[in-house]
Amino acid sequence: MAVRDKRLDARVRVVVSNRPAAAGLELARQADVPTAVLAHGTYADRASYDTALVALLQEHHVDTVALAGFDRLVTEVFLRAFAGRVINIHPALLPAFPGLHAQRQAFVHGARIAGVTVHFVDEQMDHGPIIAQAAVPVLDDDTEETLTQRLLAEEHRLYPLALQRLARGELRIEGRRVIGGLP
Questions:
Q1: Secondary structure of the chain as H, E, C letters
Q2: To the nearest whole number, what is the mean pLDDT of the chain?
Q3: Which domains does the chain carry?
Q4: Known active-site residue 61
Q5: pLDDT band for position 5 (cuts 50, 70, 90)
Q6: pTM, 2 dp
Q7: Marked catalytic residue, from 60, 90, 101, 127
Q8: pLDDT (mean) for 14-33
Q9: Per-residue pLDDT at 181
């Protein structure tokens, strides 16, 4: 959507999922973007899967990987192939609430502030250097669904901004800090 709406000057070369029913695949098809399903269950281990995933992405001439809803840890095989060019969006203010169901975790812990984080990917779950974050209040009448919708709106705003800065070469990592990240 961000490319179509001219909020991101980029070309989406392929959308890949390990789940055939992933919503992103249908959105990509509707936008005439190539899609692929690479089922992880057919590979002996994560490194074998990542080797096949790298080959697929390279076939499509991908230079930057934007993870969204990709619920698998990647290996050094993958990260080496796209060094400093893999980012992820997560529906929490990391390092709080990593992993799945971050919104549910926020409710269980009684958080009054939730949010979203864009970060570089490393081999640990939801751990890489942070590029940008946006806070979203947890309202008294929120449900997991209403909070999710407000978080998603922030994701759709923040992720294209971070991707654009990365595409322009305006981001770099120094240790665990990102130089040129968004405020």
A1: CCCCCCCCCCCCCCEEECCCCCHHHHHHHHCCCCEEECCHHHCCCHHHHHHHHHHHHHHCCCCCEEECCCCCCCCHHHHHHCCCCEEEEECCCCCCCCCCCHHHHHHHCCCCEEEEEEEECCCCCCCCCEEEEEEEECCCCCCHHHHHHHHHHHHHHHHHHHHHHHHCCCCEEECCEEECCCC
A2: 93
A3: 15-179 (3.40.50.170)
A4: no
A5: confident
A6: 0.92
A7: 90
A8: 94
A9: 84
